[in-house]
C-alpha cells in the first residue's frame, strides 16, 4: 500500500515537473534573428545580372552570420523582378536545394541556391520574390499586362531548405504588374525553437487583413514583415511605425527593409513588444543604401522581462537627415495650437476634433534664441488616402515639429537638419510631456505610440516612454508620458488606425486612382532620370 502511494506520488510529482517544464518553454528562452537592410541593384545591367548581384549580396549576408541565426529575413522586392520570375511551391517535403525528378514547377535556380544556403547555414530563411503562378490568366480580369498571374510573394525555408510557408501580398501598393489572390491568405509557420510566426508584406501592415487577423485572430506573437517602405513624417517613418506596431500588438516583430534612401526607402529592425527595439537601422545620413544584417536575441515571449541594461539607445549627436521623406497629406485639416518659444513655459490644454479629445500637459524651454523647429499640438479625425484606392480612418493627437509657423510646414525637415543635424543651441528641451487621449472604441482599431527623435529618426525606447491603456464603456483611454527630459523630439503622438471604419464613404472613382498611379510612375521615372544625371 505504502509502495503504491509512493509510486503514485512519484507519478504526481513527475507530472508537475513536466507541466512546469512545459510552462517554462513558452515563457523563457530566446532565439537569434537576423533582418537584412538591403540595397537592391536597380541599374547598370540586364535583369538577370541585377538578380545575380542581389543574390550574391543575400548569400554573403547569410554567410556573415556564421550559422549563429535561427532565422534570417530579407526585404520586399530586392531580389528578382517581373522579367526574372520564379514559381513558388506552397510547401515541399524535401529541400528545394536539389531538383526532384517529379518537380512540376519552374523553380528558378536562384531560389534553389537560397534553399541551399538555408541548409548550409542551418537557418530558417524568409525571402520575398516576384512569383509566376502556375495557373493561367483568368480571362475575365486583366491579370497584369504580362498575360499570366504574378504575385508579390514571401517564401519561407526551414533549416533544410524545404519550403514551409508561402504568402502572397494582399494589400498591393502601386504594383500594376502584380495580382492579388482571390481571398486574403493568412500565412503562419512553426519552428523547431518553439516560435510560431505569421508573415506579410510592407503595405499590409497598415490594414486589418491580414496583419491584425494574424495577431488578434490567430494569437500570433512572432511576426515577420518584408518591406520596401517609403517613410512619411511626422507619424509614419519606417522604424517609428514598426516599433509602435509591435508595441501595441505586444508582439515580436522582425522587419526587413529595402535600402534606397534617395527614394525615401529605408528602415529595418527587431522589436520585442513593449520592450522596444532590440536592433534597428534607418539610413538617414546617406543617400546610398546599405547591405547590413541586424542581429538580436529575441525573447520567445515578448512580455518576458529582459535585462534593462540591454536597451539600445543611439547617440543624440546631431546627424544630418538626407533621407527623402513624404509628408502627411492632411495636415491642413488638423486642429492645432502652436507652442510659444519662451523659456520655461508650461501649459495644460484640451484640444478636440469630432469625437476625439486629448489633454496635453507640457513643460518646455528653448535652449537658445533661435529654435530649429517650431512645435504644434494637433488633433485629427479623418480618412486618409494612400495611393490607389486605399484608405484608413485615422484618429490621432500629439506634438510634432514644423519648420515654420505654417501648419503645412509640419513634417518637413528643416534646412539646418538636412545640412548638419539640429545643433544643440537650436534645440527645445521638453521636461514634462503627457497626453491623455479619449479614443472611441471600435471593433477594428489599433492605437499605437508614434514617437520620433530627430537624431536618427528612431522611436523612443521604454526608458523614455510610458504608455497605458484603459478600456472604459465606450472609450479607450490612453495615457502617454515622457519619462525623462528630451531635447530632440520630432513627434510624440497617439496614432489610432481605425482601418476601414468609413470604407463605404471612402471610395473614389477609378479615374482618380488611375491618375494617382500615373503620377507616381511619372515621378519614379523622373527620379530615376535624376539619378542617372547625378
Ligand atoms: C563571423 O566570423 C567572422 C570571422 O571570424 C567574425 O568577424 C564575425 O564577427 C562573425 N559574425 C558573427 C555574427 O558571429
Ligand atoms: C520546445 O518545446 C518542446 C516541448 O514542448 C521541448 O521538448 C523543446 O526542448 C523546446 N525547444 C526549445 C528550443 O525550447
Ligand atoms: C460614452 O458613454 C457616456 C455615458 O455612457 C456618454 O455620456 C457619452 O456620450 C459616450 N461617448 C461616446 C463618444 O459615445
Which key phrases capture this entry?
534 residues; Nitrilase/N-carbamoyl-D-aminoacid amidohydrolase; globular; disordered N terminus; binds 2-acetamido-2-deoxy-beta-D-glucopyranose; alpha+beta; 2 domains; disordered C terminus; 34% strand
Overview of the molecule:
With 534 residues, the protein is an alpha+beta fold. It folds into 2 domains: 29-310, Carbon-nitrogen hydrolase (Nitrilase/N-carbamoyl-D-aminoacid amidohydrolase, 4-Layer Sandwich), CATH 3.60.110; 326-503, no CATH class. It is built from 8 helices and 24 strands. A 6-stranded mixed β-sheet has the order 5-4-3-2-1-13. Strands 6-7-8-10-11-12 form a 6-stranded mixed β-sheet, covered by helices on one side. Strands 15-18-19-24-21 form a 5-stranded antiparallel β-sheet. A hairpin with a 5-residue loop joins strand 6 (187-190) and strand 7 (196-201). The protein starts with a helix and ends with a helix. Mean pLDDT is 89; it is low at 1-27, 505-523 and 529-534. Bound molecules: 2-acetamido-2-deoxy-beta-D-glucopyranose (3 copies). One 2-acetamido-2-deoxy-beta-D-glucopyranose (NAG) is lined by residues 22, 25, 29, 193-194. It comes from Drosophila suzukii (Spotted-wing drosophila fruit fly). The chain crosses the membrane at residues 515-533. Belongs to the carbon-nitrogen hydrolase superfamily. BTD/VNN family.
Outline the fold blueprint.
Elements: H1 2-27, E1 30-38, H2 47-64, E2 71-73, H3 109-120, E3 124-136, E4 148-157, E5 163-168, E6 187-190, E7 196-201, H4 208-217, E8 222-227, E9 232-233, H5 238-249, E10 252-257, E11 268-272, E12 277-281, E13 291-299, E14 326-327, E15 335-338, E16 345-353, E17 356-366, E18 374-385, E19 391-402, H6 415-419, E20 428-440, E21 446-453, E22 465-471, E23 475-482, E24 489-497, H7 503-506, H8 510-533
Parallel strand pairs: 1-2, 2-3, 7-8, 8-10, 9-14
Antiparallel strand pairs: 1-13, 3-4, 4-5, 6-7, 10-11, 11-12, 15-18, 16-17, 17-20, 18-19, 19-24, 20-23, 21-24, 22-23
The structure holds 2-acetamido-2-deoxy-beta-D-glucopyranose (3 copies).
One 2-acetamido-2-deoxy-beta-D-glucopyranose binds next to loops.
Amino acid at each position: 500500500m505504502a509502495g503504491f502511494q509512493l509510486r503514485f506520488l512519484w507519478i504526481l510529482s513527475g507530472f508537475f515537473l513536466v507541466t512546469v517544464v512545459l510552462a517554462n518553454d513558452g515563457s523563457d528562452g530566446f532565439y537569434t534573428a537576423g533582418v537584412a537592410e538591403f540595397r537592391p541593384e536597380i541599374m547598370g545591367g540586364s535583369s538577370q545580372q541585377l538578380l545575380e548581384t542581389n543574390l550574391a549580396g543575400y548569400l554573403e549576408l547569410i554567410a556573415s552570420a556564421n550559422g549563429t541565426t535561427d532565422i534570417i529575413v530579407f526585404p520586399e522586392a530586392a531580389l528578382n523582378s517581373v522579367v526574372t520570375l520564379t514559381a513558388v511551391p506552397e510547401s515541399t517535403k524535401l529541400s528545394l536545394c536539389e531538383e526532384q525528378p517529379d518537380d512540376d514547377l519552374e523553380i528558378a535556380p536562384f531560389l534553389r541556391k537560397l534553399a541551399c544556403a538555408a541548409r548550409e547555414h542551418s537557418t530558417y530563411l524568409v525571402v520575398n520574390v516576384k512569383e509566376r503562378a502556375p495557373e493561367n490568366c483568368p480571362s475575365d480580369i486583366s491579370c497584369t499586362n504580362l498575360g499570366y498571374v504574378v504575385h508579390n510573394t514571401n517564401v519561407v525555408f526551414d533549416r533544410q531548405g524545404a519550403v514551409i510557408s508561402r504568402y502572397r501580398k494582399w494589400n498591393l501598393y502601386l504594383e500594376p504588374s502584380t495580382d492579388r489572390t482571390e481571398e486574403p491568405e493568412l500565412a503562419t509557420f512553426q519552428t523547431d525553437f518553439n516560435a510560431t510566426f505569421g508573415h506579410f508584406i510592407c503595405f499590409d501592415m497598415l490594414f486589418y487583413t491580414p496583419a491584425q487577423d494574424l495577431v488578434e485572430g490567430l494569437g500570433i506573437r512572432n511576426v515577420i514583415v518584408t518591406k520596401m517602405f517609403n517613410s512619411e513624417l511626422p507619424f509614419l517613418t519606417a522604424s517609428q511605425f514598426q516599433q509602435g506596431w509591435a508595441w501595441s500588438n505586444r508582439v515580436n516583430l522582425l522587419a526587413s527593409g529595402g535600402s534606397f534612401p534617395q527614394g525615401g526607402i529605408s528602415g529595418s529592425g527587431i522589436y520585442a513588444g513593449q520592450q522596444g527595439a532590440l536592433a534597428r537601422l534607418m539610413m538617414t545620413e546617406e543617400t546610398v543604401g546599405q547591405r547590413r544584417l541586424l542581429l538580436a536575441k529575441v525573447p520567445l515571449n515578448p512580455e518576458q522581462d529582459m535585462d534593462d541594461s540591454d536597451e539600445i539607445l543611439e547617440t543624440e549627436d546631431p546627424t544630418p537627415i538626407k533621407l527623402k521623406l513624404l509628408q502627411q497629406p492632411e495636415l491642413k485639416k488638423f486642429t492645432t495650437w502652436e507652442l510659444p518659444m519662451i523659456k520655461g513655459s508650461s501649459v495644460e490644454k484640451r484640444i478636440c476634433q469630432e469625437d476625439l479629445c486629448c489633454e496635453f500637459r507640457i513643460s518646455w524651454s528653448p535652449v537658445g534664441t533661435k529654435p530649429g523647429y517650431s512645435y504644434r499640438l494637433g488633433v485629427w479625425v479623418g480618412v486618409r488616402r494612400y495611393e490607389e484606392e486605399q484608405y484608413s480612418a485615422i484618429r490621432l493627437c500629439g506634438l510634432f515639429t514644423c519648420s515654420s509657423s505654417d501648419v503645412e510646414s509640419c513634417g518637413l525637415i528643416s534646412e539646418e537638419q538636412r545640412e548638419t543635424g539640429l545643433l544643440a543651441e537650436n534645440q527645445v528641451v521638453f521636461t514634462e510631456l503627457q497626453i491623455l487621449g479619449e479614443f472611441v472604441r471600435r471593433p477594428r482599431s489599433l492605437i499605437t505610440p508614434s514617437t520620433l527623435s530627430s537624431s536618427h529618426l528612431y522611436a523612443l525606447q521604454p526608458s523614455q516612454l510610458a504608455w497605458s491603456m484603459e478600456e472604459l464603456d465606450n472609450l479607450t483611454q490612453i495615457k502617454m508620458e515622457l519619462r525623462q527630459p528630451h531635447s530632440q523630439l520630432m513627434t510624440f503622438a497617439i496614432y489610432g488606425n481605425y482601418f476601414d471604419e468609413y470604407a463605404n464613404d471612402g471610395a473614389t472613382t477609378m479615374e482618380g486612382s488611375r491618375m494617382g498611379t500615373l503620377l507616381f510612375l511619372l515621378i519614379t521615372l523622373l527620379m530615376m532620370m535624376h539619378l542617372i544625371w547625378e
